[in-house]
Amino acid sequence: MDKMNKMNKMNKMDKMDKMDKMKQIVEIINKYSPYFAILLTFILSLLFTLIPFWQLTFVAAIFGGFLCTKMKCGALSAMIGIIFSWGIYIIIGNIRNNTIILFDQLGVLITGSTRLGFWLIMIVLIIGAIIGLLGGFIGSGIRILVELKYFSQKVNKE
User: Fold this and answer.
1) What digits encode the pLDDT tens for the residues 119-140?
2) Residue 150 and residue 77: Cα distance in Å, rounded?
3) Range of the domain at 61
């Protein structure tokens, strides 16, 4: 009987050690979640931009925002990731295809003045920032709602 009690205590101690380690891992992940969110949003947005469905960058922002526990963090992380990916895409387009001429011609068509290509690029990046901001808000809001529902169910069961 004494051996059984010792084994039960040892199993409980092992479970407690595993729970402590898991809590430490979760704390580390939550600490660095904005960086993971920026990286995930950047990669997914770049992939979605390279295929003809650039509108799916909104989904990339939602995934990036879902990694953060705070709405401000999720929105800013998703916005930064999308701005970086769209900026790199525009830079690569300017180097390979010289698309700045296309932006200048589009500026002439819209306003009638020349040298507006830079401002059109800024408008494209601002649109990307808005998409990232909204997607990040939605993603982090979904996570907050899911966590509240999960924890409330867990508390009710206990």
Assistant:
1) 999 999 999 999 999 999 999 9
2) 24
3) 32-157
Specify the DSSP element, H or E, that contains 84.
helix 71-97
pLDDT tens for each residue of 33-57:
899 999 999 999 999 988 888 889 9
pTM of the model: 0.79
The total of other beta-carbon atoms located within 10 Å of residue 135's CB is 28
For residue 66, being part of any structural domain is answered with yes
C-beta of residue 98 within 8 angstroms of C-beta of residue 81: no
**Structural tokens at position 109:** 């068509």
Number of domains in the chain: 1
Q: pLDDT: is 124 or 18 the higher one? A: 124
Q: Is residue 127 within 8 Å of 90, Cβ to Cβ?
A: no
Residues in CB range of 79: below 8 A, 6 or more apart: 61, 129, 132, 133, 136
Identify whether 14 is part of a domain.
no
Would 23 be classed as within a structural domain?
Answer: no
